[in-house]
Amino acid sequence: QVQLVESGGGLVQPGGSLRLSCAASGIIFSIYAMGWYRQAPGKQRELVAHITNGDTTNYADSVKGRFTISRDNAKNTVYLQMNSLKPEDTAVYYCNAGGNYYTGIGGYWGQGTQVTVSS
Question: Residue 89, class by beta-carbon neighbours within 10 Å (0-12 exposed, 13-18 middle, 19+ buried)?
């Protein structure tokens, strides 16, 4: 049974930082491309960051220079370091394994973790 479990979300002030983690089980983690997606209220789910099984990374324009995606294959975990957070980063953040690059469709999803950026 495949499980993706996100953690690390919470409430942070503008300009602050958070580190999200996604622990995977039930898959051969090292062969999967992994992505972080987010969905804000009233908006479609969107790609935030993506990392291939060869460690090639890509980011949404809105987070470039502020967010960093990384993976630790020994721990079956993918991370999202989020710095200089803005109120518009507020959303539920989802981890995805192996899905379509832009939408995550066809892959495995975690349950999501809420990130709220507010003073």
Answer: buried
The whole-angstrom separation of Cα 96 and Cα 111 is 10
For CA atoms 92, 93, 98, 100, give the dihedral sign. positive
Query: Tens-digit pLDDT profile for the chain (119 aa)?
Result: 999 999 999 999 999 999 999 999 999 999 999 999 999 999 999 999 999 999 999 999 999 999 999 999 999 999 999 999 999 999 999 999 999 988 889 999 999 999 999 99
How many CB atoms are located within 10 Å of the residue 17 CB? 11
